[in-house]
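Take a minute with the sequence and C-alpha cells given here and flag any C-alpha cell that looks odd. Thanks in advance.
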Amino acid sequence: MKQILLLSIILCLIPTSDGRRLDAEPAGNTYRGTITLQEPRALDIKETLTDSSPNYPETIKLYYQGLKENYVVFYDWNGHTLYYKYRDNKFDRRLRKYVSRLAAGAPYEVTGEYQGVFVFENKTIRRFKKKGEDTLADKKEKQSIPVFQLVKYRELILEEIIF
C-alpha cells in the first residue's frame, strides 16, 4: 500500500513535456462535481408526481452505469436507476454506436420520452407496465424503475474541463 502511494506521489511530481506539473485528482472528484446535490433525484421526482401532473420530466441529469438488455442504465446520486430504451431487440444495431460512446460513471443530461415502468411483483420478478397501463401508485412506488425511450444525451463533464 505504501509503495502504491509513493508511486502515485512521484508520478504527480513528474513534469510534463511542456514543463507543467501533473496534479492528480482523486477518482471520486472527477465525475461527481458536475451534477449538483440540488438536482432532483429519482425519489424526489417520484414524490412530486400527482394526479394533476403525473408525468416524469423529459430531461434528467444522471450518471451512466452501463448497458443491460435493450436499455441504457443511468443512476442518480442515491444510486436509484432509470432505464432508457435504445433498441427494439438484440438485432437492432442502429444506435449501438451512439450508446457505445457513453463512459461509465460520467454525468449526462439525458432526454427521453416516458414509455412505462418496471414494477416488482414478488421483490425479484419485474413486470413492465406500458404508459397508460400504469397507475400513479406504480410510478410513485419506491422500488419501481421508470423506463424512457432514449432521445439524446449530453455529456456534462466537458463543461468542467479547464486547461
Observations:
- Residues 109 and 154 are 5 Å apart (CA to CA).
- The longest strand covers residues 107-120.
